[in-house]
Amino acid sequence: MDVVVGLDSGTTATKAVTAGVDGRVRDLASVGYPLSVPAPGRAELDAQRLADAAVQALAAVAARARDRGDRVVGVCLSAAMHGLVPMDDDGRPLGPVVTWADDRAAGFAEALRADGRAGGLHARTGTPVHPMSPLLKLAALRAEDPDRLAAVPRWGGVKELVVAALRGGPQVLDRSCASATGLYGLAAGTWDTEALEVAGVRAGQLGEVLPTTAVLRGLRPGVAAATGLPADTPLVLGASDGVLANLGIGAVRPEVAAVSLGTSGAMRVVVPAPTVDPAHRLFCYALTDAHWVVGGAVNNGGSVVRWAAQALASGDEVTGEDADALDARLLDEAAEVPPGSDALLCLPYLLGERAPWWRSGLRGAYVGLRREHRRPHLVRAAVEGVCQQLALVRDAFSATGLPVGEVRATGGAVASPLWVATLAAALDLPVRVADSPEGTGLGACLLGLHALGALPDLDDATGLVGVSDPVLPDPAAAALYARTRPLLEQSTQALTGVLTTLDALDDSPSHTPA
């Protein structure tokens, strides 16, 4: 069978997925790497290790494809958004990748809000003004070390790093990853003049922006030798991991939303043209010229249950299969508690929060805690808090004129019936769970097939991707969540000053705000 490899370079691992024209996943390889937190607020990756992982993962699936008799006809790239890495003119990294979770630029986000420029930047670039974005990371570096900022030949992200590792040549990136930098004008189709001024960089220090379907050829000789692929294997430039998750779950038609719910989460819909929320709650990133993804990401997902397993159940660090088993046991306990957790609210901001607030320094809290509440209540309230946060994103869709009638969900958390039932009730929408957990990698395969002419219409991806029967919302739970969601909003707004002050006071070594 002819297959395409979707190469997905993420924050903790690079995964290579192979799929044929039928859209079915045939193989998967993963090469992991650690996230470095050398100081509070910092979150970095070893750039060379990430680049090497791309070659290693590709080599693994290419070898197994040959063993099966499959022919790799192309490779399509997916990359984590919002990373920033200094590079030389040949694409070699000159430092670590500063990831989306790095929070050192928080003060510059607040300054742009205070001086009134944040709204215009968001409206033109589609990226919320938040320390996750390369725009703010560069602005912080400009204030700290302007000589270094100017001296670095090239500034790029994960996509530019992987492209350089695989083929070298002039620095290029796709419109999708560019649209997530905070530096790229969506309507203008060029680097935004004001954003460049805020960041303190020249357009020439950034890559050339090409369509996500651009096909490049010419693997580096060492890469061709390591992978066993022909040197002229087509390399589809691809897109960012977030928008490809929509494609890989088949959520590309109107009114079908994708929810990713793993360690963190996101909710996204596809629209035919750039659409920016005037209230600045949602992002807008490119998939193709006719497919744009609007949505909101939340920092906290299944991580809230993992926290509960450590803090409320074991007291010790539990990893691997033992941790998964403990998570499952806590979720089973929580399922015995009625919806609403006996009038207990959780602000689930253990790792800070992004949508719809886009404010740094938020921290978690329980509101309404009573003596009668036990561990299962705390766990269920945390699950409900995450799902309610995603419902706030859905509410922002409605306010922006983007109706949603169905949700397709993927990620490790949706293996739990409690998570799926709570999500359906909080959103008050039917939820279908994807058959394959590798939505982003599969999305890269499908975009690759489209770019190479084997999938003429991307909208056909909806019929290629397998999903479960819908889980329908429980009407009583949905009504209760609709009643309590404004309380979560009010609590967050009322406590923001307290939480951000506490965050500023925290100098513990483990404090890693996102």
Q: In CATH, what is the homologous superfamily of the largest domain?
A: ATPase, nucleotide binding domain
CATH topology of the largest domain: Nucleotidyltransferase, domain 5
| Helix content range | 25-40%
The main sheet orders its strands as: 3-2-1-5-14-13
Residue fraction in strands: 15-25%
Q: Low-confidence parts lasting 5 or more residues at pLDDT below 50?
A: none
At CATH level 2, the architecture of the largest domain is: 2-Layer Sandwich
Largest sheet: 6 strands, mixed
> How many helices in DSSP terms?
17
Counted beta strands: 22
Mean of pLDDT:
94
Q: Which CATH C-level class of the largest domain is it? A: Alpha Beta
Q: How many structural domains?
A: 2
**By helix and strand content, what is the structural category?**
alpha/beta
What assembly state would you assign to the polypeptide chains in this entry? single chain
User: Could you tell me the radius of gyration in angstroms?
Assistant: 22 Å
- Rounded to the nearest angstrom, the distance between the terminal CA atoms is 43 Å
| Outline | globular
Protein name: Gluconokinase
Domain Carbohydrate kinase FGGY N-terminal: 4-248
InterPro entries: ATPase_NBD (IPR043129), Carb_kinase_FGGY (IPR000577), Carb_kinase_FGGY_CS (IPR018483), FGGY_C (IPR018485), FGGY_Carb_Kinase (IPR050406), FGGY_N (IPR018484)
Keywords: Kinase, Transferase
